[in-house]
Design a protein that fits this description.
With 224 residues, this protein is an alpha/beta fold. It contains 5 helices and 9 strands. The strands form 2 sheets. Strands 2, 3, 4, 5, 6, 7 and 8 form a 7-stranded parallel beta sheet that branches. The chain is globular and about 55 Å long.
Amino acid sequence: MNVTEKELEQRLPEMAELLREKARALEALPGMRLSELPPGETLIVSIDLNRGFAVEGALASKEAGALVEPTAAFLRECRARGYQTLCYSDRHTDASPELRAFPPHCMEGTAEWELAGSLLEHAGRVVYKNSTNGVLAEGGNPAEDAGKRFFVVTGCLTEICIYQYALTLRAWLNEHNIPDAEVIVPMELIDSYDAPGHPAFYYNLVFGSSLLENGIRVVRRIIY
């Protein structure tokens, strides 16, 4: 692979049209009704809506913060209708190798690893993870529960924790020939973050599209 600025300049019109096509595809996504999912076979997942991403600390963003209450309301409604819920949260120590790539965040001894807002009240079960991929955490692969076939994934960040989790879960289901299983991502309840050189819109567009292209059922919203 050879990526150069010169080649980018030559291909900008082509790339711009490709991004437009991806944006149109995401804009046209349908919603789905929660009632389509059988409660006993469905798990509702929230990833990393903790204080360290949504409230305070080096990796906190307003985009994650804006997801907290809508996600808590969604989990509350799901539990009222008999769905199981599961929340993941980063929790690190000084020994965490992930801190070579990211600044210290969600450290033990701080409040950053605690779920934000009222999420804990509706979390059902909480899994603490030491990497960006919740499936790899101890007890973190919900597909190993033979009774579950539908996994609704919400939270942050679109291009890191959501993307890795959804694709790893989809790959595990494929590897084990789990019939009719679906990983479902409602765009309304995931987000990236805005920062210099890191526009949330771009990352939501590219990685949202890639989720769709990798067999994830991406929907605009879940209606209940």
